[in-house]
C-alpha cells in the first residue's frame, strides 16, 4: 500500500530535539519498505491548504503521523490528527482528542486524578487558568517539599534541569516563579511536587486484541553528587557532551523483589491507554518514591521512534523487530479508520 510518512518541517540549523524527527522518518520509511509498502515522506507546516492538496495528489492508503510540533510548538501537534479526521484519512497513532488531553499536562493530571490514578500534586498552570494547589504532596515526600517547574505543552525535557527545583515555597512564591519562567518554557508552565526516587517509563504497542505493555525500563542515575536531584533533563536527553547524557542509562533487568512494583506499573500504564483512548503506540513516564508508591508524570502520545531511543530499546527487549512494530502501528490505523 502507499503510505505517507507525515512529519513536521525542520528548519536548517534546528536543535537536536527537532532534527530527531528526520531520523524517525528514515527509520519508519525503511521499515515500511521492508514490509512491502511504498513510503512517501511529507513535511507538514501550518499551511494546511497546501497539506490537503498534497495528500489529495498523493492519495495514500494510510498516513503514518510523525508530526511532533507545528509553528515551533508541541502544543499545536493535535491540529494534524484533527485535520486528518475531518478529511477522513486513516492515520496512525492517537486521536486529536487524545493529543489535546495528554499534551496539556495539567489537563492530563486532572483527568488522571479524577480517575483515581496517582499523579504528583501540582500548582498552576500559568498563565492560562487560575492557580490551583492540587491535593497534598505525597506522604513520602521529603521535608521541605521540593517543586519542579515544567513546560505545560512542550516535551522532550524542554527547559527542564535539576538546577531548577524550588524548595517549599508558598503559593505566591510559586506563582512568581511560574510567571518568571513561562517565557522560557514555551509561554506556559506549571509546578509539580518533585518525587524523589526511581524513574521508569513503559512503552505500549497496539495489537489486534488491544494493547501490549512492553518491558519496563528504569533510568539509572550514575555518579551524582550526594543530594543532587535525579532528573532526566534536557542535557541528559540531547547534549552528547554533557555529564548527564552519559550517566543516565536505562536498564531492563530487575531483581525478583521488584516484580510486584513492575506489575503495578504495567497495570497503571494499561489504564492510561484506556483512559485517554490512545492508539498505535505510546509511553507512560513514572516516578516511584522511597515508599514504593508509583506516580504517573505524563503520557507521551507519540514517543520517539528513532532506532536508538527508548521505544526501540523496549521493542528489542520484548523480542519485537522494529519493522514488525511499524506493521502493528499501521495495522491499528487500518482497524480504527480515521483516528483512534
Structure in words:
- With 340 residues, the protein is α+β, with helices and mostly antiparallel strands.
- It has 3 domains: 2-92, Rossmann fold, CATH 3.40.50; 119-193, no CATH class; 198-336, D-amino Acid Aminotransferase, Chain A, domain 1, CATH 3.30.470.
- It contains 11 helices and 13 strands.
- Strands 8, 9, 10, 11, 12 and 13 form a 6-stranded antiparallel sheet that branches.
- The chain is globular and about 60 Å long.
Attribute tags:
340 residues, alpha+beta, Rossmann fold, D-amino Acid Aminotransferase, Chain A, domain 1, 6-stranded antiparallel β-sheet, 4-stranded antiparallel β-sheet, 11 helices, 13 strands
CA-atom Rg in angstroms: 20 Å
Q: CATH homologous superfamily of the largest domain - what is it?
A: ATP-grasp fold, B domain
Shape: globular
Annotation, overall tally of beta strands: 13
Q: Name the helix and strand elements from N-terminus to C-terminus, one letter apiece.
A: EHEHEHHHEEEHEEEEHHEHEEHH
Question: Summary?
Answer:
The chain has 340 residues and is of the alpha+beta class. The protein is built from eleven helices and 13 strands.
Amino acid at each position: 500500500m502507499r503510505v505517507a510518512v507525515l512529519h513536521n518541517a525542520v528548519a536548517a540549523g534546528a536543535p537536536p530535539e527537532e532534527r530527531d524527527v528526520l531520523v524517525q522518518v528514515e527509520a519508519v520509511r525503511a521499515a515500511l519498505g521492508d514490509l512491502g509498502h511504498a513510503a512517501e515522506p511529507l513535511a507538514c507546516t501550518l499551511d494546511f491548504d497546501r497539506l490537503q492538496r498534497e495528500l489529495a495528489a498523493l492519495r495514500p492508503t494510510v498516513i503514518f503521523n510523525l508530526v511532533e510540533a507545528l509553528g515551533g510548538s508541541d502544543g499545536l501537534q493535535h491540529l494534524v490528527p484533527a485535520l486528518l479526521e475531518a478529511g477522513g484519512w486513516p492515520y496512525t497513532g492517537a486521536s486529536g482528542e487524545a493529543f489535546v488531553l495528554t499534551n496539556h499536562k495539567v489537563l492530563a493530571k486532572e483527568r488522571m486524578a479524577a480517575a483515581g490514578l496517582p499523579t504528583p500534586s501540582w500548582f498552576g498552570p500559568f498563565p492560562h487558568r487560575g492557580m490551583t494547589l492540587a491535593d497534598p504532596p505525597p506522604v513520602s515526600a521529603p521535608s521541605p517539599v521540593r517543586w519542579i517547574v515544567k513546560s505545560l505543552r512542550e516535551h522532550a525535557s524542554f527547559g527542564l534541569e535539576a538546577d531548577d527545583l524550588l524548595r517549599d515555597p508558598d503559593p505566591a512564591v510559586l506563582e512568581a516563579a511560574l510567571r518568571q519562567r513561562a517565557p522560557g518554557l514555551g509561554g506556559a508552565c506549571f509546578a509539580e511536587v518533585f518525587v524523589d526516587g526511581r524513574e521508569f517509563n513503559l512503552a505500549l504497542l497496539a495489537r489486534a486484541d488491544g494493547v501490549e505493555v512492553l518491558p519496563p525500563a528504569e533510568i539509572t542515575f550514575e555518579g551524582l553528587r550526594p543530594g543532587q536531584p535525579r532528573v532526566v533533563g534536557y542535557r541528559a536527553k540531547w547534549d552528547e557532551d554533557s555529564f548527564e547524557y552519559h550517566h543516565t542509562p536505562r536498564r531492563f533487568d530487575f531483581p525478583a523483589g521488584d516484580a510486584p512494583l513492575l506489575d503495578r506499573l504495567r497495570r497503571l500504564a494499561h489504564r492510561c491507554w484506556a483512559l485517554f483512548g490512545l492508539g498505535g503506540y505510546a509511553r507512560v513516564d513514572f516516578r516511584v518514591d522511597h515508599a514504593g508508591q508509583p506516580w504517573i508524570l505524563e503520557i507521551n502520545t507519540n514517543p520517539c521512534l528513532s532506532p536508538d531511543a527508548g521505544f526501540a530499546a523496549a521493542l528489542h527487549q520484548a523480542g519485537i523487530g522494529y519493522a514488525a512494530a511499524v506493521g502493528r502501528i499501521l495495522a491499528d490505523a487500518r482497524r480504527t479508520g480515521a483516528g483512534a
